[in-house]
Specification:
The protein has about 270 residues and is α+β, with helices and mostly antiparallel strands. It folds into 2 domains: about 180 residues, PvuII Endonuclease, Chain A, CATH 3.40.210.30; about 70 residues, Arc Repressor Mutant, subunit A. Helix content is about 30%, strand content about 25%. The chain has 8 helices and 13 strands. It has a 7-stranded mixed β-sheet. Strand 9 and strand 10 form a beta hairpin. The chain is globular and about 65 Å long. It starts with a helix and ends with a strand.
Length: about 270
């Protein structure tokens, strides 16, 4: 393990927020952002050189100055749940196809210790319309009446798109993080529509729960896929097509006679 990785694993505590911040929400935002800026490494290039965007930027929170990848940070004192509350629904939908759509960082922290416990990154190529859920408009009596926010539905993102840098206070080796990151970069070369199908079939493969699986195992998710894409009347052929794409991209390996295996991350 490199000295940088050792630093990342050892320095989990947050610095004190400036005195003019009084609310718990403000303090959490400032301290978690400063910790991530100071100790996190970029999962795309491995560098630890970030700059911060202005507060309330509609683009992102910070950017890697080496590879220019952008990141949005969300922090929580609770466990990672099914959904994460994000910003305006319209803005998020507009960002999906943008080149500067940021990657999503989710940081869990311990309030009593004022320290990080878990840090997960979701690469931007895992954001599709199916992952972004529209919330109800704010009530007429609210300060921003009619404003519509959104949720990021984590359970719709395959495990391959939820990459831990820190888990249960233990730093994940940089080489492992980058190998997981590189494994799915092929999704960036696909359209949003094609990406959605690939992600759903990835989930179907992961739902089998085994390294080796059959075509029939993946067909078990047919009903879910039909509900997700009600206008598609050829779900099984579509599943086979997506498995072929995942095979061609090295995500899975075809073993013959309708049998496959997940490719190991090296």
């Amino acid at each position: 393990m490199s000295s940088e990785e050792e630093d990342f694993g050892r320095h989990l505590g947050f610095e004190e927020a400036p005195a003019h911040f009084e609310s718990a929400t403000q303090i959490a935002r400032v301290t978690t952002e400063q910790w991530a800026l100071g100790w996190m490494f970029c999962p795309n290039c491995g560098a630890r050189r970030f700059s911060q965007f202005p507060n309330n930027s509609r683009v992102a929170d910070f950017r890697c100055e080496t590879c220019r990848e952008e990141f949005e940070l969300k922090s929580t004192k609770s466990r990672f749940g099914r959904k994460v509350v994000d910003g305006a629904y319209g803005a998020m939908r507009d960002r999906l196809a943008a080149r500067n759509n940021p990657n999503f960082l989710l940081l869990k922290y311990d309030v009593a210790r004022s320290s990080a416990t878990d840090l997960m990154v979701i690469p931007k190529h895992f954001f599709t319309p199916e992952v972004v859920e529209e919330r109800k408009p704010l009530a007429p009596a609210a300060r921003r009446a009619g404003w519509i926010g959104c949720n990021i539905v984590l359970e719709r993102i395959p495990e391959a798109g939820r990459i831990f840098l820190l888990k249960d206070r233990v730093a994940i080796p940089k080489l492992d993080v980058r190998a997981q990151w590189d494994r799915t970069l092929f999704l960036r070369r696909t359209s949003l529509e094609a990406r959605g199908w690939l992600m759903e079939v990835m989930r179907a493969v992961e739902d089998v729960g085994q390294g080796r699986f059959s075509l029939d195992d993946v067909y078990a998710s047919e009903d879910r896929l039909q509900r997700t894409y009600p206008d598609n009347r050829n779900v099984r052929p579509k599943i086979r097509q997506q498995l072929q794409v995942l095979r061609d991209q090295g995500f899975i390996e075809f073993l013959g006679r309708g049998r496959y295996s997940l490719t190991r991350v090296s």
